[in-house]
Amino acid sequence: MHTVSRRNFLQQSVAVGAAVGALASTQASARTYGTNDELRLGVIGTGGRGQWLLANWVRPIVDKHKVRVAAVCDIWNRNRDAGAKLVSDQFGYAPKVLTDYRAVLDAKDIDAVIIATPDHQHCGMLVAAVQAGKDVYIEKPIAMNMAELNRAYDVVTASSQIVQHGTQGRSCPGADSARAFVQADGLGKLLRVEESRSFYYPYWNYQPTVERESDTDWKAFLFGLPDRPFDGEACGGWMGYRPFSTGPVGGWMSHFSDLIHYVTGCDFPIAGVCQGGVYSPTSKPGRDAPDTVTAILEYKEGFTTLFTTHFGNGANDYRIWFGTKGIMRTAAPDGYPGGIQPKVSPEGSEHPEKIAKETALENRATETHMENWIRCCRERKQPNADMAAGYKHGVAVLLCDLAMVHGRKMIFDAAKREIRPA
Predict the structure, then answer these.
(1) What global pTM score does this model have?
(2) I want to staple 361 with a disulfide (CB 3.0 to 4.6 A). Which of 74, 114, 298, 342 is the partner?
(3) Which residues are 67's β-sheet partners?
(4) From residue 57, how far is each of 53, 348, 374 by CA, in Å?
(5) Contacts for 267-270: CB closer than 8 Å, 24+ residues apart
(6) pLDDT tens per residue across all 422 residues of the chain
């Protein structure tokens, strides 16, 4: 695995922090829109994830919630054209097509934005959007370092904007049932939560390459990181490259940790250790984000979490919650298409009040994560995955990523809002 030295890591943190800090510091006034007003949406980042959100989560609710996709924006002409075509084909009208996210934020006819850009751009764009008076749906993971995470938290919580983080597991069918069961002491004392999730091929293998620098804006892609020569593989397949991605720690463990926070109601993780590297023979050559990871987080409530992933074999996809009264099994964190479908059983327990028998908990339908955000934008209420939840999953991801980078245990100091070696 490509090693990030402490000096380089700090330089990158300062560069990104400077980019975020250079954004406008004045909060713009947002348009107030009621139940009967059309909510005008801009989509920043129309690659694979942005297109998926448009087709699967926005399209089904446009009529019910009076949503119009007013603009699509991407620096890469391939994604930009694909996003515009999707809206034209599936929504029946042509959106405004933009190349610079700042043009979306400056537009007076846009109320809210979906940000589905590469990970290293999330915090900076979130801050800029909130300061422009836009409500925001922001993809995860939220941050690449604590400086930008703290900045984003402060800006968002000081604003009146509605921000939903893309950790949709807490909105899927079954999540509320699992939460009610655990918080009613159904598992007894929670001891450990474990997830193992893998595919045969790393998910970033399927990202296309940017063939020509003229097809995109490389400087805009870097987004304040130190300049480097154009790299079409990294620009298109950024999920597999540092410093644009933390690999499956940010891509998958963010979902896992966020669901644990939601179900248990726990506080921040207090410590983390992590090991990983590029070990899979199915990983596309040149990628330097880890494809194999073992990450452990410790919580002050007295339980630990274990997240493991590898590629090259996709046979293990499970999540188990271990308690003194038994266990709870749940499906993959994104839960497509049927939620997390929790099942509880007395397995492994000798507790006098252990779970009576294996039982599937209620898997009732809920509004989607996107629908929850849109409704909360109209009602001016906090959504399921607000900035407090985003900050917490951000800390979990950074604890483990920094532990892997530095090769040692890291701790989170909540009072100082910093991560440091144990």
Answers:
(1) 0.91
(2) 342
(3) 39
(4) 5, 40, 11
(5) 267/299, 267/300, 267/301, 267/414, 268/299, 268/392, 268/395, 268/396, 268/412, 268/414, 269/297, 269/298, 269/299, 269/305, 269/395, 269/396, 269/399, 269/412, 270/298, 270/299, 270/300, 270/411, 270/412
(6) 333 444 344 344 434 444 444 444 445 555 666 666 899 999 999 999 999 999 999 999 999 999 999 999 999 999 999 999 999 999 999 999 999 999 999 999 999 999 999 999 999 999 999 999 999 999 999 999 999 999 999 999 999 999 999 999 999 889 999 999 999 999 999 999 999 999 999 999 989 999 999 999 999 999 999 999 999 999 999 999 999 999 999 999 999 999 999 999 999 999 999 999 999 999 888 899 999 999 999 999 999 999 999 999 998 888 999 999 999 999 754 444 456 889 999 999 999 999 999 999 987 767 999 999 999 999 999 999 999 999 999 999 999 999 999 999 999 999 999 999 99
Decide: 145 and 153 in contact? Cβ < 8 Å. no
Which tokens is 143 given?
């941050």
Rounded-to-integer distance, Cα 329 and Cα 341, Å: 8
Q: Answer whether 302's CB lies under 8 Å from 323's CB.
A: no
Q: State the Cα–Cα distance between residues 368 and 333, nearest whole angstrom.
A: 14
Note whether 288 and 2 are within 8 A (CB): yes
Sheet holding 326-330, edge to edge: 359-360, 343-345, 326-330, 317-323, 190-197, 303-309, 292-299, 269-277, 410-413, 418-421
